[in-house]
Design brief:
The protein is an alpha+beta fold. The chain is 20% helix and 26% strand. The radius of gyration is 13 Å and the shape is globular.
């Protein structure tokens, strides 16, 4: 997997900036697809979703497979970027396993 993402700065806030938010979601979905490919997830065995949220937040881009749930966002808690990952059982409903949030 490449170490850069087309020079997109995931740490630059995108709230209140529609164009930056669209770019954030496009790049995040692309990176999540690259993660699915690197993990060997077959097409159709995972979902890629994007929830732009309201104007004051980044929203989330999500990779949801049968046993893995990964979400990229910019938390409103003051951190500049975040990746949430957890295990799950299936793709219906929300994952019910303990989550891990990794911040740089």
């Amino acid at each position: 997997m490449p170490k850069t993402s087309s020079n997109f700065d995931f740490r630059k806030p995108v709230a209140y900036d529609g164009e930056a938010k669209r770019a954030f979601h496009n790049h995040a979905r692309r990176r999540l697809k690259q993660l699915a490919d690197a993990l060997g997830l077959a097409p159709g065995s995972f979902d890629l979703r994007s929830n732009p949220g309201g104007i004051a937040v980044s929203g989330e881009a999500t990779l949801h497979a049968d046993h893995l749930y990964v979400q990229a966002c910019q938390p409103a808690t003051g951190h500049d970027t975040g990746i949430l990952f957890r295990t799950c059982q299936g793709r219906e409903g929300l994952p019910r396993r303990p989550e891990q949030l990794r911040l740089p």
